[in-house]
Amino acid sequence: MPASDAGASVSRDAAAAPVVALRSITRRFPGVLANDRVDLALVPGRVHVLLGENGAGKSTLIAILAGLQQPDAGEILVDGRPVAIASPRRALDLGIGTVFQHEMLVPTLSVVENLALGGGPWWRRCRRDAAAVRYRAVAAPLGILIDPDRLVGDLSLGERQQVEIVRALWRGGRILVLDEPTSMLAPDEIGALGRLLGRLRERGTAILLVTHKLDEAYALGDEVSVLRGGRLVGRIEPEELARLDRDAAVARIVRAMFEETGAGDPIVAAEGGRAARRRPPAPDAPDVLRVEGLSVAGPDGRRVVEGVSFAVRAGEIFGIAGVDGNGQKPLLEAIAGQRPASGRVWLDGEEIGGLAVPARHRRGLRYVTDDRLGEGTIAQAPVAEALVLKRIGEAPFWRSGIVRPAAIEAHAADAIDRFDIRVPGPGTPVGRLSGGNIQKVLLARELHGRAKVILYNKPTYGLDLNNIRQTRGRIRDGADAGMAVVVVSTDLDELVSLCGRIGVMSRGRLVGIVDTDDGDGDRDGGGARARIGQLMIGMPVR
Amino acid sequence: MTGGASHGPLGAALRLVLPVALALLAGGALLAAVGVDPLAYYAHVVRRGMLTWLGLQETLTRMAPLLVLGASLIVAFRAGVWNLGVDGQFLLAAVTVAAAAPLLAEHLPGGLMLAAGFVLAAAVGAAWSLVPALLKAYRQVNEIITTLMMTFLGVGLANTLVKLAFRDPGTTVAQTRTLAVEDRLPRLFDTIVTGGLPIALVVVVVVHLLVTRTAWGMRLRVVGASPKAALHAGLAVPGLTVAAFAVSGGLAGAAAAIEVLGVRGLVQADWNPAYGLTVIPFVFLARFNGFAVIAFTFLFSMLSIGGESASRRFGVPHYYILVLVGLLLVFLALVDYLGERRRKAAA
Amino acid sequence: MDAFLTQAFVTSLLLGAVTAGLPLLLAGLGEQISEKAGVLNVGIEGMMLLGAYYGFLAAYSTGSVWLGFAAGAAAGAAAAVPMVVFCVVLGMNQIVIGIGLTLAAEGITALLHHFQFSRTYPRLPATEVLAIPLLSEIPVLGRALFSLHPAAYLAVALVAVAAFLFRDTLLGLSLRAAGDKPAALDTAGVDVRRVRTAAVLATGALAGFGGAYLAVVGAGVFVPFMTNGAGFIAIVLAMLAQGRPVRVLYGALLFGASLSATTALQVAGIDVPTDVVQMLPFAMVMLVLVLFGQRASLPAALGTHYERGAR
């Protein structure tokens, strides 16, 4: 990883002047101070990591750099001269290219067409051949070999991100801003991204890497700034970071994130990287969930899940690893009952394959989706309704088909209280809540009553550390209370820290199950990680 | 997704009064330009539309079918079904019930005949929405395209039926047989307002409660707000889509029954009031709230009844009311938008 | 039917298809541009009517057909301005504003006609045709397809122009991006609002041109409500064409043929009710949708507002 040569690049760049400098940037939203007098400098050939939880103001800062939003106060210097980044076009003209967390490519256009977008006056011809030649010239040295004529909608998330990086550099970008670039990537894709950033750094590109993962900050960064509540609260200079080894650096970053403001709990943050072992379930615990030969057909008739079988005992947390999009989501949806599937599913010995979602929900099978706002809840509907979304028509909330608002409201008040949902009231639309609070709404709904099996899909994706800790706590508590838990995640550290067994999915099949505690004395799950990696690498490649 | 707008009665009144005032002002400029005194014109419209006993009765009569069309659209729009084909459903049902009613009257006693007429009209309206419903539910074909085409088809078919199959042999004009006045919907007391009005009011209120207060209504709203969330909650999305279409089409048919059985008694060839086109934007502006639909429908009916009378008095063709309604829609939407923005800024 | 009648029938059917189809073609092309850019323009019926009225007025008062077209296009574009302000800039409901525009335009043109022409009912002389040498001599087809007013050739040429613009220029890419993923277009440095504004204005101009053609060349007279739903047919055509201009052309000719078929049938001495013939293309399209219907690939952001930095 680039960390090994960090010292060399730092000494080389020590005297370099920043290409972009933010001075005392302030941005207010109604009721929120998103950025409060933030200073930040980007130096050519250096990766500047911006750490912070969700809501710390990272996205606003990126939007300001990309010309999507304007600061209320402060100044931006590019090459030492003050500039106003009034529009995305201006940002591009200044050489600032941005890779957003949610990709900003047009799925119905090809790779080169996306690159050509906005590259001249409207009447200009779109010369695909010339653009393809130039694309190869930009992309090949970075190790990006995607066919320029492929439709972006057909690319994997990792490939799209690579296209976005090319796009950010396309118009002579010398400043690259990346927002949570690894959140949707598989382990091998994260490795590729690290190598790509290394090459760019050598070429003298100034890079701003925004993340909330501590390991990444250490592995990829030359210097670190920490944002909290809109304020810059911590900073690690390149010289200092280069001196530290991994554990010391992570500890130092944790201190920068929490101690220096006196807020937060370092153990919480450390859990972002480190495992807290759970005791395994009793060996004679019964199988609560059993899945046999489950197959799911996709919209084009091709199988997206193929013959998956596994069983989960009471008190066990079963992990499912794999590159995103290898059938994990349809598998969970089929078990939850929201997708037709062939094969059999047993809950507590009762076959439930023929039941619809509400019936499975009543029997104690619960599913916490990763699409929290679009699928799990409805943005404009009140929190109280979201909490009974899977129980429409059931008593006591409805009687003879007529709604009983008082019952729904009381239920909501109780859930808000028990799950510490920060919301003005049960009538507040879900869309006004933060991501962490929306997740709490989902947890409150799915954990309510006698839950026996809980399926989690990427339970901590996009959450801040505090909510990650709480969510993982809920997952463990559930297993400790005797539930059978299934966790799908693309974050291997998370799976290793939570699960006793981890299944690996590839192209819709469960290609193997790894025991994380097989007595090889590797306490942080390194052996398991390696075996999971092997299973992924061993997957048939077309 | 909550039922009503979440502002006080004063705000609601302002949201209605301000756009009306602006539309009248802009429309008044147009009147002045063609040499008509706007104040005299408007005074006449209001007097004739709601302040005279006869005018009020005419306005209430006009309202009835529009209210039921509004109810039809509330069901569809709440379910996320953009049924732009109510005019076809309405016209086809009107023609069918106009042809059937005189025949039914020969065999059935009054009340039963009227009930049969409503059922028939609703069935025709629902049937005409079936193809777009199935195409949307099971093949994901966009219903704006299909319902618009079914409207053109429905209008053509209705005209063909009047001219060929259902034509009254007793007249030279292409029209259906006339339903005798004594067989039509009974009039209320000694007015010209028929029983269609109370029926329509009940339908709107019932539909409003159905959508906001029942489990079925909540399922419908979930499907309309987010089909993904509906699948997640295990709702039968295709079934609910077809049901919403059927209820919507059926109500469009019932609206036609009110018009034909209550007021007209027959349908002439090439008659197409295109009520649906006018009601659609009002239902949006009412935010699918039944009570707001009642208010908007009254306003529109009053303007069109008053305007028809004023056209004879002032020599301004009643097309002028179309301009006024167009302006009203734009200003209503504008004031609604500004209010919404202020509320967001205050939050 | 003898050979002469058959010939006359085919010629008049084709001529009618072209005459009635051209306004549909122009409006359909216009609607396609808006829809591509993500704006569902329901006001197109009103824009056609305003184009028809002002096109007729200008042609009648100046005696120039071309000034009539120009006035019609300008009126259509002017009618699109409220659509731009309320829907593209402010983000208000496109269906409400579109229907409001159509109703207002119906009323205004009927009123203006009432005050200006309702006593005189002026007519324009038949417009001159441009017979293309040789081609116009082809029996049956020649008179119908190659002996038309020059504007008709222009309209067909616009199909090729639109296809070229959509496929081969940066404008085409921007339009598609504005309809499919406006945020991506914005971050690529193109102002979404500007692209959509241009698209809606172009729609208005084309619809107005189509309306003017209808009044000036097709009918030679302005009649209130003369578009008679053509704008809504144009919406259907644009949606069915899936972004391809040439498909709008096919559709416009098909629907145009059915709109004018009754006249042709009368020429041939066959009496079929107008309504039945006019239903045919709708019935055909519905049948095709029922048999082969699948997800119509409409732009993902169609009908939705885009605001930079909205969270």
Describe the protein.
The complex is a heterotrimer of chains A (542), B (347) and C (311). Chain A has 542 residues and is α/β, with parallel strands linked by helices. Helix content of chain A is 34%, strand content 24%. Chain A contains 20 helices and 22 strands. Chain B is an all-alpha fold and 347 residues long. Helix content of chain B is 77%, strand content 0%. The longest helix of chain B is centred in the last third of the chain and has 28 residues, at 237-264. Chain C is an all-alpha fold and 311 residues long. Chain C has a single domain (2-117, 143-295), classed as ABC transporter involved in vitamin B12 uptake, BtuC (Orthogonal Bundle). Chain C contains 12 helices and 2 strands. Chain C has a two-stranded antiparallel ribbon with strand order 1-2.
The proportion of residues forming helix of chain C, as a percent range, comes to over 70%
Helix content of chain B: over 70%
Q: Report how far apart the termini of chain C are.
A: 68 Å
Q: In total, how many beta strands of chain C? A: 2
Please write the CATH class name of chain C.
Answer: Mainly Alpha
Q: Give the name of the CATH architecture of chain C.
A: Orthogonal Bundle
Instruction: Report the order of strands and helices of chain B.
Output: HHHHHHHHHHHHHH
Order of helices and strands of chain C: HHHHEHEHHHHHHH
Oligomer: heterotrimer
Q: Determine the number of helices of chain C (DSSP H or I, runs of at least 4 residues).
A: 12
Structural class of chain C: mainly alpha
- DSSP summary, beta strand count of chain B: 0
What is the global morphology of chain B? globular
Largest sheet data of chain B: none
Q: Report the end-to-end length of chain B measured between terminal Cα atoms.
A: 18 Å
Question: Could you tell me the strand content of chain B as a percent range?
Answer: under 5%
Largest interface: B-C, 47 and 48 residues
CATH fold descriptor of chain C: ABC transporter involved in vitamin B12 uptake, BtuC
Mean pLDDT level of chain B? 90
